[in-house]
Amino acid sequence: MAGVLNIPKLPRVSPLTFRKQSKPPSISISASSETSDPQPDTVSISTKEVQNSSFASSSSSSTAAAAAAAVSFAPPPNFKPPEPKRFGIRPDKIWDIIGACLALFFRLGTGIFVSGYSASLVSKDEIPPDQYSLEIGGYKLKETSKIGPRPEKPIEIYEFESCPFCRKVREIVSILDLDVLFYPCPKNGPTFRPKVTEMGGKQQFPYMVDPNTGVAMYESDAIIKYLVRNYGDGRVPFMLSLGPLTTLTEAFAMISRLGKGTYYTPSKLPPEPLEIWSFEGSPFCKIAREVLVELELPHIQRSCPRGSPKRNILLEKAGHFQVPYLEDPNTGVQMFESAEIVDYLRATYAQY
């Protein structure tokens, strides 16, 4: 397809790892047509072919990389990261947060807790003050979870925020506490939508590439089963196992945010992916991710739902735990507060 950018793989990322997975055998996945951008044909994907074609080095990809590197990125003039305010909502974002909360009702909190989550109240002395925990009435909440094997490299997922099939996959990513490199594919996006067609043969979402195994596939249910088999306990959570009812409730969950995170806003492609600490189910994280998708900004999600060990890691790193937390290696900015993150992303990357 003439004029399509063949974007190279963004610079390598050092994922947060806890327990390495033994290297599984190479497999092939057969995927059938499914989702919000349906294509009529069934496609069989060879993992070797995808491995070779995905982000393959070429003159066009080199040109795109050089163009991205040539653009200068800097924070907005007089920019200063805001002080974090726990559960604070900027007045102009109140209705956005209320609308984003609707998903909690329709999805019964799916994506808020890590698999195997449990909690109990213990004395304040049982949990050191430098470890993350909620304090409730003179006690602390001790939270545990059951995390499966960890991928050595972040799994790559091509998707967009307002697609119900994509939301299903984002929920399992949070439940499994996985770090994922998201390639946003908003409608009319010039970069990653064409790339999916080039790699898999059709423009359908979500599309997953696992660089740890060489597996690539379409179909949200197939992706969910693959992820729980390789990085979980093999069981699909109840709210993700209801077939059409799951998809219907996913769609209802996004009614109040209709159109957000759907359409491309012309932007400058950065040379390195941004990093965001977040999890599916947080209304604050949702409004930040919507803008990341609209601006077609690749980003690594450091998943940290309740029960995640990464909550302690962020506490140590930033001196405070709150999500979303954005790290931009292209400008050096590190910041809390969803409303200010939205403003920062638009000021830094949108082409007005």
Write the layout of secondary structure elements.
Blueprint: E1 29-31, E2 43-45, H1 47-53, H2 59-70, H3 94-106, E3 118-123, E4 135-136, E5 139-144, E6 155-159, H4 164-175, E7 179-184, H5 192-200, E8 207-210, E9 215-217, H6 220-231, H7 244-253, E10 274-278, H8 283-294, E11 299-303, H9 310-318, E12 325-328, E13 333-335, H10 338-349
Helix pairs in contact: 3-7, 3-8, 4-6, 4-7, 8-10
User: What is the beta-strand fraction?
Assistant: 15-25%
How many E strands?
13
Distance between the termini: 28 Å
- What is the typical, i.e. mean, pLDDT? 85
Element-level helix/strand string? EEHHHEEEEHEHEEHHEHEHEEH
- The outline comes out as globular
Helix content: 25-40%
Can you offer a commentary on this structure?
There is one protein chain. The protein has helices spanning 47-53, 59-70, 94-106, 164-175, 192-200, 220-231, 244-253, 283-294, 310-318, 338-349; strands spanning 29-31, 43-45, 118-123, 135-136, 139-144, 155-159, 179-184, 207-210, 215-217, 274-278, 299-303, 325-328, 333-335. The protein is α+β, with helices and mostly antiparallel strands. The protein has an eight-stranded mixed sheet, with helices on both faces. It has a three-stranded antiparallel sheet with strand order 3-5-4, with no helix packed on it. Strand 10, helix 8 (283-294) and strand 11 form a beta-alpha-beta unit. Helix 8 (283-294) runs parallel beside helix 10 (338-349). Residues 1-35 and 37-63 have low confidence and may be disordered.
